[in-house]
């Protein structure tokens, strides 16, 4: 009975925090993102994945940005950095 309590707690935690798919875009997708954003005046510094979206760290006009792209590679949210 004592062993069942930690197992039950682990299962409860696993259900409380569902796994978030954080698959990185492949090389071809990253190249397309870089080319598309370059055409818009951005300099891409890093491409990552967060919360099921593609996250791009970029610079434009001397300002840093975190850009969030959807599955169609469209910017759906941006956050200006320092």
TrEMBL record:
Keywords: Signal
Domain of life: Bacteria
Keyword Signal found: yes
InterPro entries in the cross-refs: PepSY (IPR025711)
Transmembrane segments: none
Signal peptide span: 1-21
Location of the PepSY domain: 8-78
Statement: the UniProt record of this protein carries the keyword Repressor: no
Name used for this protein in its record: PepSY domain-containing protein
Organism: Albidovulum salinarum
Phylogenetic placement of the source organism: Bacteria, Pseudomonadati, Pseudomonadota, Alphaproteobacteria, Rhodobacterales
